[in-house]
Amino acid sequence: MNGGDEVVAAPAGPPHPLEWKFSQVFGERTAGEEVQEVDIISAIEFDKSGDHLATGDRGGRVVLFERTDTKDHGGSSRDLERVDYSIGRHPEFRYKTEFQSHEPEFDYLKSLEIEEKINKIRWCQIANGALFLLSTNDKTIKFWKVQEKKVKKISEMNVDPSKSMGNGSIASSSNSSSSRPYLANGGSPDRYNYISNDFSFPPGGIPSLRLPMVSSHETSLVARCRRVYAHAHDYHINSISNNSDGETFISADDLRINLWNLEISNQSFNIVDVKPANMEDLTEVITSAEFHPTHCNTLAYSSSKGSIRLVDLRQSALCDSHAKLFEEQEAPGSRSFFTEIIASISDIKFGKDGRYILSRDYMTLKLWDINMDSGPVATFQVHEYLRPKLCDLYENDSIFDKFECCLSGDGLRLATGSYRSLIQT
Which PANTHER family match (predicted)? Predict the structure, then answer.
């Protein structure tokens, strides 16, 4: 370390391979135990640091977890990755808290039941040590604040509340109205100096007065709903995405994308509307939408026709035109009855720096470069073995199943779902 010598730490050995275990619910299940539908996990989301994990279930509950293994080494998981330090073991998450986010509702105008299932969760920026997140079901979005509250315990009281005096009550002012006279105006002549008859001094009196003291501080996590964003979507919400400005977010359904301010729950701005004047002319719907991770004026949304549109909010208030269009050209002679169905994009995600967009359709996972709209830079076949069985999948509606996709924090790994409890990376 003298004379400017550089110290290089020896690289740690690779961690043991991950052992994957498929589970749709939390907790251990005994053989043959039936899984309740309300306990099935329906949404999952990491925050940007990777230190917090939020999950939602079909019962409308949100459960939060906190990463604990990084605390032993100091810094967040992102800091450890930056210095190329391997902790030699896999991440560990501890239960933090849970709360009921949504309840079942009924839309009386449309005679429609709105289930409590959590569809999407998105983390917002952390402020003053409090966690903020958005959660939504089919119709209503809620903004939650989760914060530690200190609970003080008081000791050294002069009167022991566990000891009964008189009829069991401690010294207090009585609120009984049967034993004291009242004035004409409804007041009591001794309202300020009345003492309950139940109070009695201990034998020998009180030897000394003790001031109450704070014996301990306990902390408890409290989840509070700060805002409720409702009555803005005629169709089921399929996406929510918070903006990099920390002030706004979008929500999308099949035909519209709305822009919200986090602090204003009774007003939203419609920025994308694909609903035709005549619904018989409808040819495609919005399937997913997401803000750019660093440019607050840019967002992307996908459609059921397999296209991705990049929108610049600076162009106009209603973004009825796109800045860029990403779609893959069909190979000559390859079109079939199922071509348009399997081309429908079910999910899109921006990469860490916003340079790439990851999309998932029924058969493939595609990676797009926003600077090259001629076609995807990479295509990954997810379950090509199903292509000969598309007719059977169409008959049992499995061809309309939707899968999500995601990128790792460093942008080097991709993941998506499949059948037979498989996760492809």
Answer: PROTEIN PHOSPHATASE PP2A REGULATORY SUBUNIT B (PTHR11871)
Q: Which residue has the tokens 């840019």?
A: 298
Q: How far apart are CA 229 and CA 120, in angstroms?
A: 14
> What does each of the 425 residues of the chain score in pLDDT, given as a tens digit?
444 443 344 444 555 565 667 777 877 777 777 888 889 999 999 998 889 999 999 999 999 999 988 765 555 555 555 554 444 567 788 999 999 999 999 988 888 899 999 999 999 998 888 999 999 999 999 999 999 888 777 776 655 555 444 444 444 434 444 444 444 444 444 444 444 555 566 676 666 667 777 776 778 889 999 999 999 999 999 999 999 999 999 999 999 999 999 999 999 999 999 999 999 999 999 999 999 999 999 999 999 999 999 999 998 888 888 899 999 988 777 788 899 999 999 999 999 899 999 999 999 999 999 999 889 999 999 999 999 999 999 999 999 999 999 998 888 889 998 887 667 76
Reported as type and span, the H/E element at residue 63 is strand 61-67
Would you call 300 exposed, middle or buried from its count of C-beta atoms within 10 A (0-12, 13-18, 19+)?
buried
Sign of CA dihedral 67, 72, 73, 75: positive
Give CA–CA dist 330/338, Å, rounded: 13
71, 52 Cβ separation under 8 angstroms: no
pTM confidence score: 0.77
Q: Measured on CA atoms in the order 53, 58, 62, 63, is the torsion positive or negative?
A: negative
E strands present in 253-377: 256-261, 264-273, 286-291, 298-303, 308-312, 324-326, 347-350, 356-360, 364-369
Beta-bridge partners for 98: 63
How many beta carbons lie within 10 A of that of residue 139, not counting itself? 22
Structural domains in the chain, CATH included, are: 232-425 (2.130.10.10)
Strands (DSSP E) contained in 90-236 are 93-100, 105-107, 112-114, 120-123, 131-136, 141-155, 213-229
What's the CA gap between 103 and 333, in Å, rounded?
50
CA trace torsion 358, 327, 401, 52 (10° rounding): 20
